Structures are given as C-alpha cells and as structure tokens.
Amino acid sequence: MPENKRVPKLNRTKTGKMMRSLFVYILVLFMGAGLTQAQVRFEAKVSKNKLGVNERLRVDFEMNQDGDNFNPPSFEGFRVVGGPNQAISNSYINGKRSYSKTYSYYLTPLKRGNFTIGQATIMIDGETYKTTPVQVEVTAAVERPSDGNNADYIASENVHLVASISNTNPYLNEAITVQYRLYVSNDVNLTRGFREIDTPKYADFWSQTISNRGNFTVYDGEYNGRTDYRYIIVQTTVLYPQKTGKLTIEPLTLDVPIDVETNKRDLFGRRLMTRVNKTISAGKRTIDVKPLPTNGRPENFNGAVGDFSFDVSADRTELDANEAMQLSVRVRGKGNLKLFDLPSVKLPSALEQYEPERNENVSTQADGMNGSISETYTIVPQFKGEYPIRPLNFSFFDPKSETYKTITSDEIVLKVLNGPVTNTSNTETAESGKSKVAVLNDDQFKYIKLNADLTAIESKDFFRSGLFWALLGGPFLLIPLFIVVGRKRRKRLMDVEGNKLRKADKLAKKYLSEAKRSMGDMANFYDSLERALHNYLKAKLAIETSDFSKERISALLAQKGVSAETVETFIAILKSCEIARYTPASNAAIQNDYDKAVKVISAIDKQLVL
Fold this sequence. Notes:
The chain is of the alpha+beta class. The protein has helices at about 1-40, 150-160, 465-495, 495-515, 520-540, 550-560, 565-580, 585-605, and strands at about 40-45, 50, 55-65, 70, 80-95, 95-110, 115, 120-125, 125-130, 135-140, 160-165, 175-185, 190, 195-200, 205-210, 220-225, 225-240, 245-250, 255-265, 270-280, 285-290, 305-315, 320, 325-335, 350-355, 355-365, 370-380, 385-390, 395-400, 405-410, 410-415.
C-alpha cells in the first residue's frame, strides 16, 4: 500500500512542472508577439535610384500598422503622373498576423540632376513617424525606357522622337540637316501642347534652327517596320560643322502630353482616354566630319564650301576726277555664305578707296544657306587718266564633285575724263606708293593768306591787374572746397555696401547695354540678353557657360555664395530667352525681363564670393 501511494505523488509533481514550463513558454511567446507588434515600421522605397530624364520612377511609402493623416513629400524636381495608389495586405501565417499598407506614386523627372525624395509623415497610435529621405540621380535620356505595363508605358512605346540626319559623313563646313520627327502610332493620340525640356547647344557647329511651331503638317510614316505611324516635324536645324573628326549632336528632349485608351467605357460604349505626360528624347547622334582635301587646294582658298558664282561689277566706268563710283564684289549660290570672307580689292594709288559696305541677302532653308553676299567699295579718282582694276580670283570647294574650283572676274578699266593729271604712269598701283604729282595751276593753294594784318597788343602792368590778384588768392579760396570734397570722398569710400551696389549696377548696365539697344526687336533683344548673361558668368567665374547646363550653372553660383532665390531668378531669365525664340513677347514683357536681368546681375555681384 505504501508503494501504491508514492506513485501518484511522483506523477503529480512531474505534471506540475510541465504545466509551469508550458505557462512560462506561452507567456514569453505572447510577450514576444506584443513586442514585435509594437515595433512600427514606416519606410520609403524607390523602384530605382538612377534613371534617365525620359524614364519613370515609382515611390512606395510602406507601413506595417495602419495610421492616419498621411502626408507625402513635395517631390521637388518631379511631376506626379500617377497616384497615390493605396494597397493593403492583411494575412495570417501560422497564427501570426501580417499587416502592410502602401501608398504608391509614379513620378517623371523635370530635369537632370541629383534630387532627394523628402520625408513623408503619418500618425500611428498618436505618434508621428517619418520616412528616411532617398537620394535619386536623374541622368540624360536613355535609349529605351522601361517602366512597366501601364498607361505611361503604353505612351512610351507608341510615341518616339527621332533625329533624322541628312549626312553623317560631311566635309568641314558642308551643310547637314537635322530633322526632329515626332512619330505617333494610331494606338494613342497626341496634343500639340508639348514643350522643350533639353535643347541641344551644337557647340562645334554653326547652327540655324527652323521651328515649325504653329504650322505642323501630319505625314504618314513608318517606324521600326510598323506602318501604322504618323509623324510631324517638330523642328529642322541646319548645321555647318566647324571641326573635323567625330562630333556629337546632343539630344532634343520634349515633354509631351499623350492621350491613352483605358479599359473603361462611357455610357455609349466608347473607351475613355487618360492623359499622361511623357518625356521623350531623340538620343545622341554622332557624325564623322572629313577635312577638306589638301591636294589641289588653291593658295587664295578662304574656306568657301558649296556651289557658287562670282562677279565684280562697277556702276559706271567713265567719270570725272573727285566723282564717286561704286565697285561691287558679289558671291551668289548655296553654301556657307556667312562663314568666309570675300576677296579684297587692290586699286591704283590714284583711286581713293573707302572701307567696303558688306551686304548679306541670305536665307537658311532646310538644305542650307542660299542667297548672296557682297561688298561694295566707294571709289573716288583723283586724277585724269585710265585705270585698270585687275581681275579677282575666288576659290571654293564643291562637295558634290569633291574638287576645288576657281572663278576669275573680268578686268574693269576706269576712265577719268576730266581732272588734274600726274607725271607718272596712270597704271601705277598702290603698292609702289611713290608717285609724284605735278599740278598745272596754283588753285589748290589760293586759300593760303600771304599778307597777314597783325596789330600789336596794348601793354599793361600785369602785377597790378585784377587777374594777378585773382590767380594769387584763388588757391587759398579753394582750400575749404577741397576739404569738403575730400571728406565726402572718404565717406563714399568707406561706404562698402554702397560701393558694391554702385559697382554692381554699373557692371549690369555694361553687360546689358547691347540688349537695351535692341529692345525694339524681340529676337535681337533676347539673343543679346542671353549672350550678356553668359558673358557675365564667363567674366566673373572664368567658365565657358556654353559648355554647362542650367543645373551646372545653378550649382556653381550656389557654391560661390549666391542665394537660391537669386539663382532661381537667373535661370528663369535664361529660360525666358529660350522660350522667346518660339513665342511672341510684348513690349511690357521685354521691359520686365530687362529689369529683372539688371537686378539679378547686381544681386549676384553683391553676393558672389570669389
């Protein structure tokens, strides 16, 4: 019996220990679950940290507990093209609850540079939580963006900007044409409200852009073997390469609003459209520029490339001495007319020659420059006789035949019928410079007075005159004036801020003087204004601003201590200069831009830390 009583006692002890262990285990399990559930996670995720200016970025703000008052960041440097889209996931795995809530945004970059996706905030259980900022780099446009199968992706697959180049292997100074075509498939619709984001600079070319804004013609076209495309010509640019070798043509980048069909339908069964803004780029292109051949190059070749005619003409060949005549040297044809000099005229020494007046009647079409350039000399003969004007030679390179050609003008004989004669040959040229003139009469000297009618000046005692005492006492009277002026000058020199302001205003007016003179002509005004702003930065920062983007200029000014507001105003004026090439501007807008430029140059000069 005693043995039977011990056995149940041992079982109760073992069972009690097992129950206590199980209780402790369950308690620890619940405490761990409570700690895990109390750990709030709120973070920002991006689909990529580096993307092209024509790609799309997805930003997800994810949390593991539900909250209120979600506030997204401002997304500076981006445009929101989709979102916020909200997704909630609530699941149980092995008895454990898993919760996730996400706010998604779709963004497109507005420009190149480094940007920060700022902090988003949300309230969870009365506490405010913030995400960590995310750095994103926006590069130049990529050849093929990939953003997923959505409206924005459909738009990118059906709208393309192509740079069509007439000749990728031209000669130096031979015209080539870059035609920017916007191809659109029948699957989407395109509005005409697109704008330029990134404009090529054509650093190694002479360029002339022919804009088609407001006068678009729709053509049927083919893209990558698909014939269901149509296209418009956005702009045509004529280029004359100024360097040999491989040269890069920067891409043109546009911001284009595109209408894409959705799966939704209206009451009549028609598909509804959604509009997305797409940034598209033509991509970089490279051309290989050939040097002009050295074999057969004439000595008088002056850089003319194209197909030209040449002539020298006089408005008359018979006149009297001291009468004026006009001699014209003219080149007509197609080629780089604005990029070379005409042959100079050499005349006999008896013909007085004035500086020529240059006249350009040149139009730039899609195939290059056409027209004529001329230089007109005013010539006045001094003596009677016959004077030959020797023939002039004009040489040019014809890229079609790949040969040099030389045209020689006819000789012109100028007859001076009446006037004084010389005792030297009437054909003596200006090179000798030693001709002696024999005058037949003395009429040329009759203005000289030989008998002077002079009278003596009355003598007076200078030392007793009022002039003597005025000269003697005058300096003493001026001493107080010098003291007052000196004090004002020292006070002015000590006014550091005032001197900076006066110096800045003077500098602004110096750089903007040409723009002010051109205020009546919108195109010349904005061209002069842009050149003035770039020359100012070139002088102050010792940089070639044509090689820098607006983002680079902004960064340099910021590094030199210029305030963000001043930098923003400066960049805004540069953008106004670019926009004014394609859109008209009122006199009030021109005056406003000029006043802004004066103020911003003054502000930069005061703030600049060199």
